[in-house]
Write a structure and sequence with these properties.
single chain; alpha+beta; Cyclophilin; eight-stranded antiparallel sheet; two-stranded antiparallel sheet; 9 helices; 16% strand; elongated; membrane
Amino acid sequence: MTTTAPDVCDYDFYTTQGVMTIRAWRKLSPHGADRLYNLARLGYYDRSALYRVIPGYVVQFGIAADATVATTYDASNAAARVPDEGLNEAWGGTNGRYWVSYAGSGETSESVKCTQRTAELFINLADNAARFDPMEYAAFAKVIDGVEVMDRFYAGYGDVNGCVAHAEFAFACNGPVEATMYNTGISYVDASFPKLDRVGWVDVIPDPGDLRGNMHGEWIQNEAGEGALSWLMVCLFLVVIAAGYARRLTVNKKMGNRFLDFIWNTPSIRALVTRLSERKGVEILESSRNRPGEWTEAEEVEWTLREPPASPPPPPRPPESEVYPASYDVAP
């Protein structure tokens, strides 16, 4: 849990409604970024509930599905708290739309600073800078892809049970009791709030600037980005080079085949090759796949070894009288 997060890191949250990508910049909140990096890669958010969905305001999550793990990161445990950090406005931090901050314990309108951060995160569904920036909620990440996924999160239960801080939204407060979620885990949500959406798992993509989205430091724009475009241009260039090389090989092969076809169809050369093949015991067979007028591909000419003809049997041995006539007898 002490590993330092990359300067820029993407988190793909696979939820029951689709994938949303959150990009975090460590410069905006070093302690907060380190905590998210360690929790996400160790599976803390897996199977957890998106338990607070208030359209036009926030989506909140971050209580672990396992009660033992959840209680470890309860704000009442001082050892689990992230060191306090203020909002880094100098580097572009703000609680604007789709920006992500840690939830502080005991959030009320009287809060002057977000303290006691542990693991719970909230995503601003609207521009909440005027509300949260003065309260020092240290925004350090932003949803850069999949914002439409959040529109599908179930919001029918309203805010958490017993909510009093946001009466202006005129929203129901029939959601889960946070303390019970910490003590019981996901079984409480399964039994009492089955319609709530969940986080299935989180993929961590360290230093994603060179692969997708904006390059380092460009968190204010948060558009599709130079990194993806740069890699796309490189890939297209390599494809063009490969296609040109393949075309050249194809043309050279056809020209070579036509030249060989011309040589083969020259009667004198063909007769010479035929005679040589007969001497060497090689027979050339025309491929049945070629039609008249087509050049012969090299692989469509079949070459087979022909066994040399067997030697004729020797003539029968003549009778002895013919081999040694009497006139040739040597006198004793």
